[in-house]
Design a protein that fits this description.
Elements: H1 3-16, E1 33-36, E2 39-43, H2 56-69, H3 77-81, H4 84-97, E3 104-109, H5 112-124, E4 131-136, H6 141-150, E5 153-157, H7 162-171, E6 176-182, H8 194-203, E7 207-211, H9 226-230, E8 237-242, E9 252-257, H10 258-267, H11 269-272, H12 279-293, H13 295-314, E10 321-322, E11 329-335, H14 337-349, E12 352-353, E13 356-357, E14 367-372, H15 379-394
Parallel strand pairs: 2-12, 4-5, 4-6, 6-7, 7-8
Antiparallel strand pairs: 1-2, 3-9, 8-9, 10-11, 11-14, 13-14
Helix pairs in contact: 2-12, 4-12, 5-6, 5-10, 7-8, 12-13, 13-15
Length: 395
């Protein structure tokens, strides 16, 4: 078989199993009302949880950043690409989480994926090849890949099984132990029991790496994420927050005590060997932080909570099931891949953009619609979705 024929055959097999991924082209700014492939749509699929991606103040800050710093950074952070905008953003991020990470320092990354690769490979390098990573079974792909890149031994504990985690930690003799978990699980929307996990890490002298991609900006009175939500404080804690979701722009950061950040600057290859993000993006994020931590951010989080309650209270399901979630991620489990695709296609024809999520992103037999809500949605938007979903479920 020719090489291209082999690929065509594999692609056809994915298509037959309703697992082929396809892209759609969004032609307008990220918002609840968008134009997709020329068609007006009401979208429930972005991670723009606070509706900041097209906020006038954030857009104005980006324009100002371009005027001050140009478009590109030109080099890696350790060569010449670390601009004043990056430095100021890192200082602001450190101040933002300082109530929970004492003398915090922060490190800005191009993406959350890159941040997770860096923090796990960097921490594992403390003791060479003798580190062990204890990874939650439903962790994001970036954490899984970061563990692989680290070349450390990896132990996986089942979702929320703290007894299994403690048993693994108790018998481990590794000089460097790293527990890693999502805070809000991206496909289920539930929260990890971070305080109990952190207590185990302190008991067994392990680092705790928390990926708060879907919590930063959303959880906590001031939007400081899972740190504020659970009132977490520990020198064992290494925190990753994403800046392309609730913050509305791009990139991510790792916050921890100073020696951790200093070590990552020296040893985290995904940080050392990549071009720095455009400084204008870092400048725009200063405006995002102002909103997240201020009265407007508080009001947007309150509106988001109301929309979540409206959705959960308004579904009348007989065939499908809504997973328990108090977050902006509301997964509607359908089960069969092909049926999930049909339901998503039906909604799309009605002008509702809700993605179908299938294996391997979720376990076999749990294909679902992943509804994501934004503070930019209105109650009327959610009412339209409820009406459409309830009618399809009743068919």
């Amino acid at each position: 078989m020719m090489l291209l024929d082999q690929l065509e055959s594999r692609l056809a097999a994915l298509d037959a199993a309703s697992l082929l991924r396809r892209r759609r082209v969004a032609e307008t700014a990220c918002a609840p009302r968008v134009v997709v492939n020329g068609k007006p749509m009401l979208a429930f699929c972005s991670n723009d949880y606070l509706g900041l991606a097209a906020h006038p103040a954030v857009m104005a800050a980006l324009q100002e950043g371009v005027s001050k710093y140009g478009v590109g950074s030109g080099a890696s952070h350790l060569i010449s690409g670390h601009s004043r905008a990056h430095a100021v953003l890192e200082e602001r991020l450190a101040d933002f989480v300082a109530p929970y990470i004492g003398s915090a320092r922060a490190l800005y990354f191009c993406t959350g994926y890159m941040a997770n690769l860096a923090v796990l490979s960097g921490l594992a390098s403390i003791s060479g090849n003798e580190a062990v990573i204890f990874s939650e079974s439903l962790n994001h792909a970036s954490l899984i890949d970061g563990a692989r890149l680290s070349r450390a031994q990896v132990e996986i504990y089942e979702h929320g099984d703290l007894a299994a985690l403690e048993a693994l930690l108790k018998v481990s003799q590794a000089p460097t132990k790293i527990v890693v978990t999502d805070s809000v699980f991206s496909m289920d929307g539930d929260l990890a029991p971070i305080p109990v996990i952190l207590a185990l890490c302190e008991k067994y002298h392990a680092w705790l790496v928390v990926d708060d991609a879907h919590g930063f900006g959303v959880l906590g009175e001031h939007g400081r994420g899972v740190l504020e939500h659970f009132n977490l404080r520990s020198p064992n804690l290494v925190y990753m927050g994403t800046l392309g979701k609730a913050a509305g722009v791009s990139g991510a950061f790792v916050a921890a005590h100073a020696p951790v950040i200093d070590w990552l600057v020296q040893k985290a290859r995904p940080y050392v060997y990549t071009t720095a993000a455009p400084p204008a993006l870092a400048h725009a994020l200063l405006a995002s932080l102002d909103i997240i931590g201020g009265d407007e951010g508080r009001a947007r989080r309150a509106n988001l909570r109301d929309l979540i309650a409206q959705l959960r209270g308004g579904l009348r399901l007989t065939r499908w099931s809504l997973l328990p979630s108090a977050t902006a991620i509301q997964p509607l489990v359908i089960g069969d891949n092909a049926q999930a695709m049909r339901v998503a296609a039906n909604l799309y024809e009605q002008g509702l953009w809700v993605p179908a999520i299938r294996p391997p992103t979720v376990p076999e037999g749990t294909a679902r619609l992943r509804v994501t809500l934004s503070a930019a949605h209105a109650a009327g938007d959610v009412a339209v979705l409820l009406d459409a979903v309830n009618k399809l479920d009743a068919v």
